[in-house]
Every structure is written in structure tokens, then in C-alpha cells.
């Protein structure tokens, strides 16, 4: 049985779901005022614990501000608290009061004339304590740290002046900003910037992860994100989420539950999955090698790689364990025809992964594998060819599972009529998966996966080091190898896809830690896959 904390860390909610969960807690008797006190108390404690971080703006380290280190009086830590009209502002005011009593030099910026009742009471008390309160941005004294409690999940509309311009000016200060719940100005679900938004160095997400934390467009505003768990009962989470298609963060515990894939002590290579990779062309030979090396790391029992004849010896030298199938090639050096060894046809394989480096000249091969009854991963040119065939109609005819692994550009070519993936990635992949009846893995800073039933899995951490040619080929091979093995082991395919995406990101993170972000070329990445498991 997973413990409560692990379960909570997998949940991702929308603003409406969060409000419904909160309402159940209040209806059950928890006083609003007590919950705010508890939540803000936890935030205040975390603020005092966090070591000073170098402030990065535009990629440059500006200063190493010694705020909140050691005795606040000695450090002279000055903390500015930004207070909005709702309960996000109320949280901020409780933090202000706590830090004031811990000896910090606190001031409050409260630009709104109308506040919710509880927020207004906390402001009144702060004033009675002698904490200075300012209404306009021009009056604000210097500070070592800002706490952003302007808006939380209650932000409904675009920010306008004067608050929008105040936020822009605050962002310009070379001062770290810690946001409460989420950076003010971000849409809680889409992560869209509503006019403007606070650029936080650190964000305390309250209670449950909100969807915005995994939307690419929000990432540069969030800084370092952490969950403040304030003991939301699991029963309330379940009660609210039961009918909604679930969105889950892939945690180390969930991914590692499948890794390495279980292998009985008595087995043989064909029982541990047989993967067929179809990849490469004279023009793109490296893609085939990288896909093969990704598959190697998966531990797949048997690996066959179909490439144009002229690439055969190259592939053999890089992957001596694989069966390299040299195929007749077009004048341009693409695979012209799949020529599998005698007594072998596509039904000999547990899974097929097709696409990296093929070029569009390999269209007949892609059509052939789509028509097969094998579990299939399509990537790169496999996706471009599918887009030309009409993705939705073509995929709906398949009998076996299909996994698509597009980046945003490929996604738009595949699904031109699905709402823009740049606006709301989760919604876009959900619709694409539902319409095509395929599993859709959308690559990005936070890769997300949807199944046709509407469930979504999110890779919660990654590294920009993976934004590099060939890194997707490695994922395709890895995923293919896992899928071929899973076909023999009754593990749900979605779990395998999520596991592969998590593993790939973790290898990037580990490689970047050891070699810097610049040192993670795709070949190096393949060498870190096993290290993720053996570390
Ligand atoms: N999740 C929990 O269980 C807890 C949440 N807490 C905190 O409360 C906020 C949500 O509070 P709420 O009052 O509902 O909303 P906000 O503070 O985000 O602000 C809404 C407030 O702002 C007005 N408004 C909305 N859009 C605009 C706009 N564009 N311009 C101006 N004003 C706007 C709106 O009318 C409301 O008055 C949550 O994030 C947590 O921080 C609890 O404290 C603890 C439990
Ligand atoms: K906020």
C-alpha cells in the first residue's frame, strides 16, 4: 500500500477541483480561518528554512542575497509582502505576522481597496502590530525578499493596470520572489499568463499540485516549485476526482515499480520481448544507432533493426547484439521495402517502433506497419507520413495499440483540428488520444501522455539538456524495448509509456548534473539510462 504522502504527490488538480475539495473540508467542519492559519504557518516555516539561493535573471546570477540566514536581526532581513484581495492575500498576511514575530523587518504592499473579510481582518491586525502598509508601488522600501500573495487559484480574468504594471516593476527588482500557491497572474489550469505574471524564484504549491505547474508556458514563472502538504484527507480528493479523468504526476515510486521489468529466473530471449525497430536512411544514419542504443538499455530480449542495406555494417558495429536487417533502398537511400529474414513476418515481433531517420521516402513501409496487428510506436518521419495519411481515420482502423511520440510541431501536423497544444497541452493530448484511439505522448519541457479514456500522466521534472538532436530517437528505442517486454508481462501499456518517459528524463537530469547541460548529447544520454537504475 502506498502511503498517503506518495498518493498526494501523484495528484494533479484543476482550480475547480481544488475549490471543490476545499469546500468539502470546510463543510466537514474545518474552519476556514484555521485552515489558513495552518497553511500559512507551514509556508512561514519553510521560508525560514530555505537556504539563500543565487538569484538568476535572464540566465545570469545577479547576487547571492543572504536573506533569512541565521538570526534575522543580525542579517537585517527585510521582507516585502504582496497582498491581494482574496485568501491568497490572507495567507500572505499570516506569513507577514509570523515573520514579524520572528524578528524580520516586514512591510506590506496592499494595493486593493476591497478585501475579502478574513483577509481584511488579518490586514487590520498587521496594522495594529505596527507593520508598515503601502498602497502604491512608488512607496515601497527596499527588501531582500518578496512574498507574492496577490492571487492564487481565484484569479479569473486578465490583470490590468495599475496592478499589471506594479507586477512588471516588481519583476524588474533584483530580489527573489516566493509565490504562494502559484505565481500571481498565471491561469491555474492552462498556465497561461493573464496579462502579466510574477516571475517567482520559488513557488509553494498548496495542498495538491495544480495543472499549471506542468504546462510549458508557466515554467519560466514558477522558479523552484514545492508542494506544501497541509493534510488534505485522501477521501475528499477521491470524492471530487472520481468522475473526472485523472491527471497523474509520474513519481519515482510509480516509475520504479516497473523498473527493471520483472524477469523470471527461467526464461529465454523471445520470452523477454522481441522488438523490431524500423529506422534510418543514408541521410540520417545516426538516428538508427541512437534508437538502437535506447532499445538496448531497455533490456529487451531480442532486438531486430531494419535499415537500408547500405547502413547494415555501420549498425552491426555499434549494436553487435542486434539482428540487423538490411533492406532494399530507394535511390535517395531510404528503406524501399521491408525484407525480413526467412520465416519471419511482422507477427514475429511483440512490438514495432518505426520512424527515426526514415525520411518521407519510406512512406510504403510506414503504411505497411500501420496495417499490421502489432503494438506500434510511431515517431519522427513515421508521424509525418501518418499525418499525410490522415492520422485519426488511419489510426481508428488499427486493431493493436499505437503509441505516438510527437513534439509540438508534429502534434499540430497530426491533429490540425484539435485545440492548440501550445495553449493547453493536457486538453490537446486528451482530445487527440480520444479521437485517434491511440496513446499520445507529447514531448516538451514536461512531457505528457494521454490514453483514449482521458487519463493523463505527466513527467514532473526534466532538463533543457534534452532539447537536443537525437534525444527523441533514444526515447523511441527505450519505449519500444519496454513495450516489447511488457507485451509478454501483462503490464498496462500506459504505465510502460509513462515509465519510459520518466526514465529518459531522469537520465538527462543525471547526465546534466555530472556533465553540465551542455554535455548531454544523445549518445551520452544512452550511457546514463542504466545509471538511473543502478544509482
Ligand atoms: N486550497 C486551499 O484549500 C486553500 C487555499 N487558500 C488560499 O486561498 C487562495 C484562493 O483564494 P480565493 O480568495 O478564492 O482567490 P484569490 O486569493 O486567488 O483571489 C481572488 C480574488 O481576486 C479577485 N480577482 C480575480 N481576478 C482578478 C483580476 N484580474 N483583477 C483583480 N481582482 C481579481 C476575485 O474577485 C477575488 O476577490 C488559494 O490560492 C490559497 O492561496 C487558503 O488560505 C488555505 C486553503
Ligand atoms: K500568488
Automatic annotation (TrEMBL):
Transmembrane segments: none annotated. Binds 1 potassium ion per subunit. It holds the Pfam family Carb_kinase. (6S)-NADPHX binds at residues 87-91, 152-158, 181, 357, 407, 473. K(+) binds at residues 88, 148, 184. Its EC number is 4.2.1.136, 5.1.99.6. Homotetramer. Belongs to the NnrD/CARKD family. NCBIfam families: yjeF_cterm, yjeF_nterm. This is Bifunctional NAD(P)H-hydrate repair enzyme. It comes from Nostoc favosum CHAB5714. The gene is nnrD.
Amino acid at each position: 500500500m502506498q502511503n498517503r504522502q506518495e498518493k498526494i504527490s501523484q495528484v494533479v488538480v484543476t482550480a475547480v477541483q481544488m475549490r471543490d475539495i476545499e469546500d468539502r473540508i470546510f463543510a466537514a467542519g474545518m474552519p476556514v480561518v484555521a485552515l489558513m492559519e495552518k497553511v500559512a504557518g507551514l509556508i512561514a516555516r519553510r521560508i525560514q528554512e530555505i537556504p539563500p539561493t543565487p538569484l538568476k535573471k535572464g540566465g545570469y546570477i545577479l547576487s547571492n542575497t543572504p536573506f533569512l540566514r541565521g538570526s534575522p536581526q543580525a542579517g537585517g532581513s527585510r521582507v516585502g509582502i504582496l497582498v491581494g484581495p482574496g485568501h491568497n492575500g490572507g495567507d500572505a498576511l499570516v506569513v507577514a505576522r509570523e515573520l514579524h514575530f520572528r524578528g524580520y523587518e516586514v512591510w506590506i504592499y496592499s494595493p486593493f481597496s476591497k478585501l475579502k473579510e478574513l483577509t481584511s481582518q488579518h490586514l487590520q491586525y498587521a496594522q495594529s502590530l505596527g507593520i508598515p502598509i503601502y498602497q502604491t508601488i512608488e512607496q515601497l522600501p527596499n527588501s531582500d525578499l518578496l512574498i507574492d500573495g496577490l492571487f492564487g487559484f481565484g484569479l479569473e480574468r486578465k490583470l490590468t493596470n495599475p496592478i499589471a504594471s506594479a507586477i512588471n516593476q516588481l519583476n524588474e527588482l533584483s530580489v527573489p520572489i516566493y509565490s504562494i500557491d502559484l505565481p500571481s497572474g498565471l491561469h491555474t489550469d492552462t498556465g497561461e499568463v493573464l496579462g502579466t505574471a510574477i516571475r517567482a524564484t520559488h513557488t509553494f504549491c498548496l495542498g495538491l499540485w495544480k495543472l499549471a505547474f506542468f504546462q510549458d508556458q508557466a515554467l519560466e514563472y514558477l522558479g523552484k516549485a514545492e508542494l506544501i502538504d497541509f493534510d488534505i484527507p485522501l477521501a475528499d480528493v477521491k470524492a471530487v476526482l472520481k468522475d473526472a479523468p485523472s491527471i497523474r504526476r509520474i513519481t519515482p515510486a510509480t516509475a520504479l515499480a516497473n523498473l527493471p521489468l520483472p524477469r523470471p529466473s527461467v526464461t529465454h530471449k523471445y520470452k523477454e520481448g522481441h522488438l523490431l525497430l524500423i529506422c534510418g536512411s543514408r541521410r540520417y544514419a545516426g538516428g538508427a544507432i541512437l534508437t538502437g542504443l535506447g532499445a538496448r538499455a531497455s533490456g529487451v530480449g531480442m532486438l531486430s533493426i531494419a535499415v537500408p542495406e547500405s547502413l547494415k555494417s555501420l549498425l552491426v558495429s555499434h549494436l553487435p547484439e542486434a539482428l540487423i536487417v538490411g533492406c532494399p533502398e530507394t535511390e535517395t537511400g531510404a528503406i524501399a521495402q521491408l525484407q525480413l529474414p526467412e520465416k519471419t513476418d511482422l507477427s514475429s515481433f511483440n512490438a514495432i517502433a518505426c520512424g527515426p531517420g526514415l525520411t518521407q521516402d519510406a512512406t510504403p513501409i510506414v503504411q505497411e506497419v500501420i496495417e499490421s496487428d502489432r503494438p506500434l510506436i510511431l515517431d519522427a518521419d513515421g508521424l509525418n507520413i501518418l499525418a499525410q495519411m490522415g492520422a485519426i481515420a488511419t489510426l481508428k482502423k488499427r486493431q493493436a495499440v499505437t503509441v505516438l511520440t510527437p513534439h509540438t510541431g508534429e502534434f499540430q501536423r497530426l491533429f490540425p483540428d484539435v485545440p492548440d497544444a501550445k495553449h493547453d497541452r493536457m486538453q490537446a493530448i486528451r482530445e487527440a488520444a480520444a479521437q485517434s484511439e491511440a496513446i499520445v505522448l507529447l514531448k516538451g519541457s514536461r512531457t505528457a501522455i494521454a490514453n483514449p479514456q482521458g487519463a493523463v500522466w505527466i513527467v514532473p521534472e526534466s532538463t533543457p539538456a534534452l532539447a537536443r538532436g537525437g534525444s527523441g530517437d533514444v526515447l523511441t528505442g527505450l519505449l519500444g524495448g519496454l513495450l516489447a517486454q511488457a507485451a509478454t508481462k501483462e503490464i498496462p501499456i500506459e504505465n510502460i509509456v509513462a515509465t519510459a518517459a520518466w526514465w529518459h528524463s531522469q537520465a538527462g537530469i543525471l547526465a546534466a548534473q555530472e556533465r553540465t547541460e551542455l554535455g548531454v548529447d544523445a549518445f551520452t544520454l544512452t550511457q546514463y539510462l542504466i545509471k538511473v537504475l543502478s544509482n
